[in-house]
Structures are given as structure tokens and as C-alpha cells.
Amino acid sequence: MISVKDLKNPHVVRRDLLASLVVFLVALPLCVGVAVASGVPAELGLVTGIVGGLVVGMLPGSKLQVSGPAAGLTVLVYEAVTEFGLATLGPIVLAAGLLQVVLGVARFGRWFRAISVSVVQGMLAGIGLVIVLGQLYAMADTEQPGTALAKLAGLPGLAAEIVTDNEAMTAFGLGAGTVAVLLIWPKLPARVRLVPAPLAAVGLATAVAALAGLRPLVADVNGLLHATDLPGAAEFGNLANVAVIGTVLAFALIASAESLFSAAAIDRMHDGPRTNYDKELVAQGVGNTICGALGALPMTAVIVRSAANVQAGATTALSRVAHGLWLLLFAALLPAAIGIIPLASLAGILVHAGCKLVPFKEFGPLWREHRGEAVLLAVTALAIVVTNLFEGVVLGLLLAVVKSAWETSHVQLSTRELTGGRVVVTLTGNATFLRLPRILEQLEKLPQDQPIELDLSGLRHLDHACRVALENWARRHNDAETDPVTIRR
Asked: Of 48, 215, 235, 256, which one has the fewest beta carbons inside 10 Å?
């Protein structure tokens, strides 16, 4: 929240207002690009950015984190709009926002930090791959196939179309040029980099298209009032659909995880107050509830905008609130400016953003030091590409639980023979069903013609499956002429 003390300090106000302009210039092309890639009117991305600034920016949680439409939810939004229709998007986002508020009030915010980092990285990598596959077609002004696998299979045909079709080649050139500017911009002098890279890339592509007399596809712009469509009772009735409920859960969980992981990253970039995760979750929920009521895109905290906010020198929430005001003024006064931006250039921004979601540099060290975590990341990402976002994340979480259970279920089996031929078998550690095959394999090797005592008193944990299996083994192992196996607990 903005304190009165901060507003009375002209140095703080001037610094944060300048930072807000930087964030606005970063957010503007991203809001439009995410909306177009999600299959919704461009203005709805601006609505979400405005709510993220003016509403979420005023709420407690994180002072420097900036919220708005995120590339990480593009795939899920596109699937929801395709399957249920644009009119149902609002109720889905609203319900997801209310769920976030409930989770925040119930103090679940801190528990999101317990989600495996590899699963989250795999989720973002899978989303990034799907975004890149889809936006490569958008860069050529070509209709993209429906599934990620179909997009992957269609890449040779896309390449052939770009080479043989002048219009596709022209559009792809604008998109590729946008990506090139984004890659080169960080290496330019600091004075040049005062202009945010996304804005410079889009501006250059738009100028080239205009000066060269090109006619690439552009966004269809009708203004905020025309694009905003408040959901009605019929649309809210769709929330009874099981598939819609699953989408609501996916929106809430993924948006919450992405926002709170972003908050953790931003906290490492500054020395100010740390994020209150529960309050931040409530703030994100309130923002999504309002976005849903307006029929707009869902929001998350966005690491690109948040990092730009910190790097621009912001120290209070004034910068993120003001960036929302600049978005509102732009959408109200200059909506036609959006309609001259080539869609291929916006697709180039999304391709660049999608590639940044894939942890290429981190995967090698992770594979060398924590191979299991690397496998978890890769499986989650590939599952999202092969199936869909929700199923891929669920598979990743299940694998993380299994991996954790496997690593913690260490059990040791030792044997010693006493005077008189009695054999004592001692189990220590955690005996779970995951280690049961190994335990039984070792027990089956014990002699059947000697009295055996199975000592379980050293176990810290013995699950039901192991208990039953050990009892069955004890009953049947020794032959009829030998005393049965005894169990000491």
C-alpha cells in the first residue's frame, strides 16, 4: 500500500513516477501480445493490466511486484476460450480469483512455496515450448494447428510456406526482426536502453511496415467499452460443468504459484520489506475477481515487469499504481495506436518470452548435480506439450511426491546369527511400499530351516502395505519342522 509519508517525499514520488513510465512501456506490448496469443481482443489484456496496477497495486502483499496478463497463462486461456467460448472466460477467472482469496485468508500462501521448484520450472518450460510452437505460426500470419503435437508436426510445412509465400515471408521477417532486436538490445549502450526492449522492438517493426508499405495482419481494435463484456447468468451457469471446474482450479493454482514464486524472486532483488505471501495471494485473488467480472484475462504477478520496476529504482507501490493509470489513459485516448502494430511483431515478443521460460542454461548443471530433479523438470515440460497444461502439472506433482517418498524411504536390513542357530533380522529406517520388493527379496534368501526373529523395533515408520507383507512372509517362510518366524515390534 502507498503511505502518506511516501507521497509527501518529492524525491520518492519523482523516482517512482519515472519508474512507472518504464513499467508502462514494458507492459503495453506484453498486455496486447498476451491477449492476441490467448485468442481474445487486444483490449482485454489492457483491462487486466489496468486492474493489476490500479487495484492490486493498492493492496498489501508485495510493494514492488507488478501484476497483469502473463505469458504463463496464455496456453490455458487459449484452451479455455477454444473449448468453452470467450463469454465463459469471465466466470472462470472470477471463480479462480475467489478461490485465491479463500486460500489467502486461510493462510495457504506460504504452502505454495512447498511446491517442487522443478515442477514449477517444468511447468513454465512446457508453457514456453507451447507458446513458441504456436507463435511461430503467428509470426508468419498463418493459422496454427490445434494441438502442440500438431504444431510440431506442421513445422516443415510452415517453413515451406514461409519460403514460397511472399506475404508469409514478409510477416515472418517482421517477427524475426522483433526477436533480433530483443536479443541485441541488452548489449547496446545504457543511454539507448532507456527505451524498454519490447517497446523498441514493436516500434521498429511497426515503422518498417509503414515505411515499406507492407500490409501485415494487425490487431482488431474497438476500444475498452466495446471489448469489455460483463458475464451474465447463463455464463455463470457453465461453472457447474466438471471440465470448467477443472479449468478454474488450474487457473487458481498456476496463477498463485507463478505469482508467489515471482514474489520470492523479486524479494531477492531489493532490500525493502519482504512479501507477505498470504496477503499477496488475497491481492491477486481480488484482482482476478474484478478481471473476471469484466470478462478480461486472468492476471498473475509478472517477473518481467516486476524486475523492470525494481531496476528502474522504484521503492514504493506508487510506481505500480501509476503504471496502471498510464495504461488506462493510453487505452482511453490512443486505442487506435494498437491497431497499427503487426501481429507478427507481437508474436515475436511472445516467442522471445516463451524461450525465456525454458531453463536452457540451468538444465545442464541441474542434470549433473540433481539428476532426479532434472528428470522431473523434463517430464513435466514434455507432458504439458503432449497432453495439456493441467494434466502435465498434475503428473509433475505426482512424480514429485513419488520421488520424495522414494528418497525418504531408506531402510536397512541386517542379520546376525545367535548361539544355537537362531537368526535375528533387524530392519531400521522407513519401510514403505516403495522399498517392499527389495525387502522381500532379501528376506526370501534367509534359510528356512533355522528359527528366525524379525526385529522391527528400529523402524521409524512402517506403512500398512509393508506390515501386511512382512506378516505374510513370517507365516509362510519357515518349513513345517522349524519354529515359525517371530516378529518383535
From this structure: 215
Is 65 within 8 Å of 275 (Cβ atoms)? Answer: yes
Instruction: Show contacts of 408-416: CB within 8 Å, 24+ apart.
Output: 409/434, 409/435, 410/435, 411/435, 411/438, 411/439, 411/459, 413/439, 413/442, 413/443, 415/446
Q: Which residue has the higher pLDDT, 480 or 12?
A: 12
How many C-beta atoms surround the C-beta of residue 367 within 10 A? 15
List pLDDT tens digits, range 219-229.
Answer: 777 777 777 77
* C-alpha–C-alpha distance, residues 363 and 178, integer Å: 27
Angle formed by the axes of helices 371-386 and 389-408, to 10°? 160
Q: Stretch 128-152: mean pLDDT, rounded?
A: 84
